[in-house]
Amino acid sequence: MTADSSRPENKAADAAANRWRAVAAALADGRRLELYGRIITAASGNAPLDPAQLGRAEAKSLAVLEKAGLVSVSGAAVLASPGVFSRLLESGRPRRDTSPLRFLASGGSGSLPSKRTDRLELLHHLAGEVFSQHGELTAGTDPAASGAKLTEGEVTSRLAAYTEDPAMVRRALVDEGIVRRSPDGGRYWLVRPRPSDGMEFARG
Q: Which residues share a beta bridge with 188?
């Protein structure tokens, strides 16, 4: 199963990788690396490098270093940005997933949480994702009259974006009473929308 690049955690990972690449590319050139070393040495000796004293080629190298966040220019002084590497390390750390999808086993396998409250939270979330663009059921609505009906194939294909065993998850949605199935098995609809924030997930 391929990663969904539209998810926030994947976008953040891509952005972090791009920042790493920018720094690595800036220092991959020998002339820029030598200039970066001179900038650090000059600043440590309390005699920062003056950008006005740089030749044309060095000025171009300085611009690349500055764009990568490695140095900053303040008036007549070029200074290394000491926090660039710590920020890169921080941005590369995986963020803790707090969404219900964290309950899916690694790699999106079909395993559901053994703890029922966790399982219900995950199933409610998946049901909401599957039916979110097909209308909402409100209190007192007859599920059979709702327009939020999908075929078995539609439910299965949408669940396949989250798990390697969508059929098992589909059956679990029905078994837990979150989704109802028509007698002929041809139609599925949402009968227990996910609880509002702060509400406990139904146990019955």
A: 150, 181
CB atoms < 10 A from the CB of 123, how many?
24
Q: Is the pLDDT of residue 70 over 60?
A: yes
Sorted by sequence, the CB contacts under 8 Å of residue 165 that are 6+ apart come out as 109, 110
Cα gap 20→1, rounded to integer Å: 26
Q: What is the 3-state secondary structure (H, E, C) of the chain?
A: CCCCCCCHHHHHHHHHHHHHHHHHHHHHCHHHHHHHHHHHHHHHCCCCECHHHCCHHHHHHHHHHHHCCCEEEECCEEEECCCHHHHHHHHCCCCCCCCHHHHCCHHHCCCCCCCHHHHHHHHHHHHHHHHCCCCCCCCCCCHHHCCCEEEHHHHHHHHCCCCCCHHHHHHHHHHCCCEEECCCCCEEEECCCCCCCCCCCCCC
- pTM for the structure as a whole: 0.47
When pLDDT is averaged across residues 88-109 and rounded to a whole number, the result is 66
Q: Tell me, what's the pLDDT at 191?
A: 85
- Backbone phi and psi for residue 138, each to the nearest 5 degrees, phi listed first: -105, 170
* Residues pairing with 179 in the sheet: 190
Instruction: List the structure tokens of 75.
Output: 């008036």
- Residues 48, 77: Cα–Cα separation, whole Å: 5
